Amino acid sequence: MIEKNVPSGIKYAVRSQHDFFATHLTKSIQFRKSQLTKLSQILKNNEQKLYDAISLDFNKSTFETHLTELLPIYRELKLAISNVKRWSSEKHVTTGLENFPAKSFIKPEPLGVTLVISAWNYPYNISLIPAISSLAAGNTVILKPSEIASHASSVLSEIINENFDPNYFHVIEGGSTKVGKIVYEAAAKHLTPVTLELGGKSPSIVTEHADIAISAKRLVWAKFLNAGQTCIAPDYVLIHSSVKSQFLSSLVNEIEMAKYSFDNNNYVQIVNETHFNRLLRLLQETTIFYGGLSNKSTRFIQPTILTHVELSHPVMQEEIFGPILPVLEYSDLNQAIQYVNSQHKPLSCYVYSTNKSQVNKILEEISFGGGAVNDSLMHIANHNLPFGGVGHSGLGAYHGEHGFKTFSHYKSILWKKNGFEPTLKYSPYSETKLKWIKRFV
């Protein structure tokens, strides 16, 4: 059922895709592989358009666009094309004596018409990777990119809609993306399955046993990539008091060595004036240890480190989503863990330590979507790891085969043979039959 207040164009697109899915063409493995191959080629043919569009939104360099946007998409496409036949195959399982003679298997089937609503911060990556998972699973896809990255959204609409049957894969622009809870509530009315990736405040815990130099290097790269506009960016650091001074010096050293600037092609703009102003408000009444400079005309905010941050300050109450890194001190690891656990479960958590017992304690006692030990962000590059949140940070997961599973229903089948029919389950019942049933069980 489609809601009454949904625009007629969207209603038509949904109905058309339902009709197309009913032809069963999308269930063909060959069809899926050919469409994914086609998508790969279309993207390669239009790379310059993609680079130009995202540059208008973020002033993002070709290097970073390829590294963080196109390369993960090409890898996802290659993985899906190579494995879709295996992922789609039936999996045989044990049947048991109670159903002898028979076989049992699990058969993946596509869900049908799917909707992908993407965020603005990585407008190609976050739009196309879940769409690839859905197409690989045999579904049709309506893609709604974020209107905030308007140029990237427009070029996606152009290259997809000009090259794919809208009854199969179609981009719809415009409108405003509501928060995940509202999407989930609307879908629940019709028992529609939903996967949500919602973000949150992802902590980094740096213990006294960490390699401070390499920890600072990896954290700086992960935090200030895309000017901090990354859902799994380290949101704040909890640093052991004994190494705080050394760690802060290493952070500053790494930032200055990186020479973040638009001219060096290693930094991007804040996406729009609204987000720029929001980030400046977060800097009010804070202790700036390093950075803090900004330029409204270019939407530039310098990589910034905060210290002596009050837990009640707004910068610790909402996801930062920008180049601001609060560094908080702790003296007892239990304290640090308790603080993280007092907040909503984060999308990611990063642990920097060479002490295995400390690492295992943190991994055991903190619930989070995914993360890394002695690194940040890079767990997302492994397509064998599911990407998703838990609790307020999200629901479900995707990437690689995990994405295929998210957009599939696994149908359970028992296939019995004729010619032999045990009578134990049939009437008339008797104590003797019950004894035999108990013996079998």
Provide a descriptive summary of the structure in words.
It contains 14 helices and 17 strands. The chain has 441 residues and is α/β, with parallel strands linked by helices. It folds into 2 domains: 8-194 and 407-413, Aldehyde Dehydrogenase, Chain A, domain 1 (3-Layer(aba) Sandwich), CATH 3.40.605.10; 203-388, Aldehyde Dehydrogenase, Chain A, domain 2 (3-Layer(aba) Sandwich), CATH 3.40.309.10. The strands form 5 sheets. A 7-stranded mixed β-sheet has the order 9-12-13-8-7-14-15, with helices on both faces. Helix 3 (47-58) packs antiparallel against helix 6 (150-161), helix 4 (62-88) crosses helix 13 (400-406) and helix 8 (212-224) packs across helix 9. The longest helix is centred in the first third of the chain and has 27 residues, at 62-88.
CATH top level of the largest domain?
Alpha Beta
Mean pLDDT: 93
Low-pLDDT stretches are none
What is the annotated CATH architecture of the largest domain? 3-Layer(aba) Sandwich
Q: What percent strand?
A: 15-25%
Give the termini separation.
44 Å
| Cα shape | globular
Q: Which strand order does the major sheet show?
A: 9-12-13-8-7-14-15
Number of helices: 14
By CATH, the topology of the largest domain is Aldehyde Dehydrogenase, Chain A, domain 1
Helix content: 40-55%
Number of domains: 2
Report the sheet with the most strands, covering strand number, pairing sense and barrel closure: 7 strands, mixed
Structural class: alpha/beta
- In CATH terms, the superfamily of the largest domain is Aldehyde Dehydrogenase, Chain A, domain 1
Count all strands and give the number.
17
Spatial extent as radius of gyration: 25 Å
